[in-house]
Every structure is written in C-alpha cells, then in structure tokens.
Amino acid sequence: MVNQRSPVNGETYQERLTRLEGDKESLVLQVSVLTDQVEAQGVKISDLESSLEEHQHKLDSTEEMLRQELLSRTSLESQKLDLMGEVSYLKLKLVDMEEKQIHGVERKHKAESVVNLISELQEQMCRFQQEINCRIWEKTGQADSSPQEACDTGSTEAQNPDQGLACEGSPEEVILQELRLFKEKVDHLEDQKSQYERRLKATKVKHVSLPPLLLCLDCTSSAQIPLLTTAFLNHVQSAFLPRGLQGEDLEPNQFRRGGLRATAGPRLTRTPESGSSVRDMNTPFSQWTREQVCGWLEDYGLGQYVNLTRQWVDNGQTLLSARPQDFEKEMGIKHPLHRKKLQLALRGFSTKALEKSSELDHIWVTRWLDDIGLPQYKDHFHEGRVDGRMLQYLTVNDLLFLKVTSQLHHLSIKCAIHVLHVNKFNPHCLRRRPGEERNPSPSEVIQWSNHRVMEWLRAVDLAEYAPNLRGSGVHGGLIILEPRFSSETLAMLLNIPPQKTLLRRHLATAFTSLVGTQATLEKREYANATGHAPLTTTAKVRPKKLGFTHFSHLRKRSPDNLADYICPIDSGGLSAMNGVSHRPYTGVRGLSPILDREPERQEQVGFQVTLRTTW
C-alpha cells in the first residue's frame, strides 16, 4: 500500500481530513454558542423595548398631568385675583357701613336725649295745668268784683297788650276765651307727642335692624331714622308756654330749648323730606335749603364738614357765591382735594352741564385702580374722595399729593383716563376676561385691564412671569397709547433677565403682533428720534420748583398751561419735538377723544386759573 503525501507540507490526506473534521466540530460549537448569545441579546432587547414603551407612557401621562396642573393653577390665580379685588371692595363697603352705624348710634343717643326732653316738657305741662287751675279759681273769685277791677287785674297778670281788649267784655268771656286757647294748645301738643312716640318706636326698630344690615355687605344703604326737627321743638315750646308767661319774646340769638347744641351730630336735624328734595334736580341749587345742602354733602362723601356748614350756610346760593378761601375758613375744609371736589361740583351746578363722569363716585374709582393695576393707591384716593369728575381735572401735583411719584404710574393713570374719555366714562368699558377673539385688534387691546394683560401673558407661554405685573400699572391703554412703552419696558417689568435673549425675543414677537404693525413702527420711530429718553421703571416725578427768575415768565404763559392736567380734555394741541409727534394716540386711528368743548373753552380757562390759585 502506498502512502500518499501532500506535495506541499508533506502530510497525508488522512491526517488532513482528520484535522479538517476537528476544525469543523469546533466551528459548529462556536456557531451554537454564538446562536445562544444572539438569542439572549434578543430577549434583552425585547425587554428593553417593553421597558421603554412603559416609560414613554409614564412620561406622556406625567406631561398631561403637568398640563392640567398648569391650567388649574392659572384658573386658581384668576380666582385669587377676583377674590382679592372683591375683598378690597368689601372692605371699603365695610368702612362705609361702620360709619353709617356710628351715625345711627349717634342718632339713637340724640333720640334718647329728645325723649328726656319730652319727659321734662310733660312735667312742665303738669305744672302749667296746675297753674291754669289756680288761675281759674282766681278768675272766678275776681268775677264777683267790679268789671273794671277784673280788667285791671287781668292785664297785670297777663302782661300782654292783647289782654286789654278784655275790658270791653265781661270777665267770664275773657276767662273762657283764654281757657279755649290753652285747651287747643294742649290738644295740639298731645297730638304731636303721639306722633313722635310712633316715630321713636320706628327708630328703635330700625336701630335694632342695623347689625344684620352691617353683616350683609351687599346692602347699599342703612335704615333712615326719622328725627325731631327744630321747628317742631320750637312749636312744642310755644305750645307749652302760656300767653300769660310770654311777656317778652326771646331774642333770636338767645338759647332756645330744643335748638341745636354744640355737640349735635351732622345728621341731627336732617329730615326725611330733605333727602328726597336733594334728588330733585329740577330745583336750582341756589334755592336749596340748609338741610338739603347738608344732606347733599353727606351723599357726596363730605359728611365730616356738615356740622360747620350748617352754622354758615343759609341756602345753596351761599356756596355758589363763596370764594375759594371761604371753604377752608367757614367749613374747615383743609384737604386740598376735598376743596377741589366741592368746587367742581358747584361749577357743575352753575353751568348746568351734565357730565357722565359725575355719575362715578369715589368707591368706583377704587375699583378702577384695581383694574388698571394700581391697587396700592386705593387708600390715598379713597381718603381724598377722588371721583370720576375729579379724574378729568387731576394734575401732576394732585397725583404727587396722593403719593403717586412713579413716572410710569403717572403715564398709566393718564392713558387710563384717556380710555375713559374715549368711552364717554362708561363704568364697564374695561375688559377683565378673555373673549372669543383670536387676534384682537388694537381698539380691543386698549380696553384690556391689568388682569386681562396677565391672561395674555399666560396665553403666550409666559405664565411664570405674569404675577410680576401686579401693582405695575400695565393695562391695554398704556401698551397702545404710550409711545415709549415697548417690549423692552415690558421685559423689565416682568423681571426677565437680559441674558435670556430667546425669551425676550419671543416676548418682542408676541408684543409686536399684539399692538399691530402701525403702532410698532411709530414706537420705533419715536425711540430712534434724537433726544429720546427711554421709559424706565425707576424714574420719579418731582414737583416743579419756581425760582425768582421764573416769576417773570408767569405772566407770559398762557392760561392753558397753568392747569397742567394729567390728561387734558383738549388733546389736539400737543406739539411735536424732533420731527416726531408727541401725541401717543396716533398709533390707533379713531381712538382720540371726541369731546366738542370749544364753546366752553373760554369758561374752562377762567376756571383753571381759579382752581390753580386755590389748590
């Protein structure tokens, strides 16, 4: 047998076949091991994919919960703002109700004093009746004597010239006539006493019902307590004093029982009919009585000056013809805004011009401050009794007196007053809630309140910065009407850091789409003008100080510049500087105030000079 060898490496074919079979077995083993490893990795991959799907599902559910939480947080913040505004309004109403309760307690004490006076008068009536009986017996005894002696005795006791006529008749007729007069007076007094007792019972019932009314803050007025008038007390006095004891009439300046004491409250002699007469606008103010004028002062929010007013005023003409310094001297009005409020009201009575702003009282103005984002000044405005009519004539010095020193807040109030002018002082012109509009126009944005602007910030994904606008004075009127208010100003108010450029760019884009293209171009043109001073959040307004060199220019200044109103009624005369119009209202066409007051311009100028010298 011949062994065949490989010509290459000298091994036989049998050895080579054996080696290849061994290699094949090792490769098959490796393939099986790798197959097992691939199967194990496939199981792991499927487990990881299922775990990934589970985590993705959890992530989606978490994002949905976060979205719902943000929506609920937004609604809760809106409800919180509403409740804060309602609480502030209820606090003001509570203060008014407490003042009314104090007046009610004072009236109760006065009523009790009058009851004591009635009891004293009843005792005096008993003494007079005893005296009448004694005089009847005396007259009867004197009737037996001569007629001439009876006449002389009667004239001596009565000390009245009218009794001299008794000489012409018999003594019995004189006595009967005098007794009839006494009887009529006593009967009339009894009727007046019964009427007053009924009034007193009604007063006690209404006073008992005052605490529940105070708890119910929605009530707008407390019960009116009828009180005894001065005329009635004088009538009681004249009825109780017999003619025989009225030898001489009392002087008008002497003390009379039943008159007003020095400690009498402002509403002691206010009768129910005086309040209804004040509402009758057909009667000229100059013909109003003293009580009507005092009642009107109380309704107008100046009730603390009623006491001195009653001692000075005879009728409405007294106030109309008074000089400005008389209000401080005679009525004790030292608060400059109170004097201004009174002068504006009297001017309205004189000109008989009905202004819509006069329908807005000082309580409404405090709610209006909430709407424009300046609730921190509500106490000062309420103390100054600033109402809708005074908003038209607010000056820079008035705002400084009300502790408003921020330049941004001055501009906020100015633009808000202008919005009131445009809407003819409609109390419901500001929008507090989002409407159905998707792309609001500038004419709609101008009516946005501070809360509505915060809602817009939440809508453009800036919800975490929205609470920073509270107390900032930012509202739709300021955004649209003020040319210096830009997206940079809003970013500063929102406290967005300068390094967050993407966030500021997003705010600028949203701001541009909100105010419109035309207003954006005008704001940019105003900002690029030479000498432009950017609007900052820390700038303060300081009162102007006049030196000796400035007094010579006062005569050269026009009367229009003397009043320096925050929002002038005639805004058409604003000048331009550096080629850029300073009218902030040109960015929105058709929003300038339509106030045809040129016929009254001459009269207003004279009134401005008067107010300026007084305030």
UniProtKB/TrEMBL annotation:
<dbReference type="InterPro" id="IPR058914">
    <property type="entry name" value="LIPB1/2_CC"/>
</dbReference>
<dbReference type="GO" id="GO:0005829">
    <property type="term" value="C:cytosol"/>
</dbReference>
<keyword id="KW-0175">Coiled coil</keyword>
<dbReference type="InterPro" id="IPR013761">
    <property type="entry name" value="SAM/pointed_sf"/>
</dbReference>
<feature type="compositionally biased region" description="Polar residues">
    <location>
        <begin position="271"/>
        <end position="282"/>
    </location>
</feature>
<dbReference type="InterPro" id="IPR037619">
    <property type="entry name" value="LIPB1/2_SAM_3rd"/>
</dbReference>
<feature type="compositionally biased region" description="Polar residues">
    <location>
        <begin position="144"/>
        <end position="162"/>
    </location>
</feature>
<feature type="region of interest" description="Disordered">
    <location>
        <begin position="144"/>
        <end position="166"/>
    </location>
</feature>
<dbReference type="InterPro" id="IPR037618">
    <property type="entry name" value="LIPB1/2_SAM_2nd"/>
</dbReference>
<dbReference type="GO" id="GO:0048786">
    <property type="term" value="C:presynaptic active zone"/>
</dbReference>
<feature type="domain" description="SAM">
    <location>
        <begin position="365"/>
        <end position="423"/>
    </location>
</feature>
<feature type="coiled-coil region">
    <location>
        <begin position="179"/>
        <end position="206"/>
    </location>
</feature>
<keyword id="KW-0597">Phosphoprotein</keyword>
<comment type="similarity">
    <text>Belongs to the liprin family. Liprin-beta subfamily.</text>
</comment>
<dbReference type="InterPro" id="IPR001660">
    <property type="entry name" value="SAM"/>
</dbReference>
<dbReference type="Pfam" id="PF00536">
    <property type="entry name" value="SAM_1"/>
</dbReference>
<dbReference type="Pfam" id="PF07647">
    <property type="entry name" value="SAM_2"/>
</dbReference>
<dbReference type="InterPro" id="IPR037617">
    <property type="entry name" value="LIPB1/2_SAM_1"/>
</dbReference>
<keyword id="KW-0677">Repeat</keyword>
<comment type="function">
    <text>May regulate the disassembly of focal adhesions. Did not bind receptor-like tyrosine phosphatases type 2A.</text>
</comment>
<feature type="domain" description="SAM">
    <location>
        <begin position="288"/>
        <end position="352"/>
    </location>
</feature>
<dbReference type="InterPro" id="IPR029515">
    <property type="entry name" value="Liprin"/>
</dbReference>
<dbReference type="Pfam" id="PF26022">
    <property type="entry name" value="CC_Liprin_beta"/>
</dbReference>
<feature type="domain" description="SAM">
    <location>
        <begin position="448"/>
        <end position="479"/>
    </location>
</feature>
<dbReference type="GO" id="GO:0007528">
    <property type="term" value="P:neuromuscular junction development"/>
</dbReference>
<feature type="region of interest" description="Disordered">
    <location>
        <begin position="261"/>
        <end position="282"/>
    </location>
</feature>
<protein>
    <submittedName>
        <fullName>PPFIA binding protein 2</fullName>
    </submittedName>
</protein>
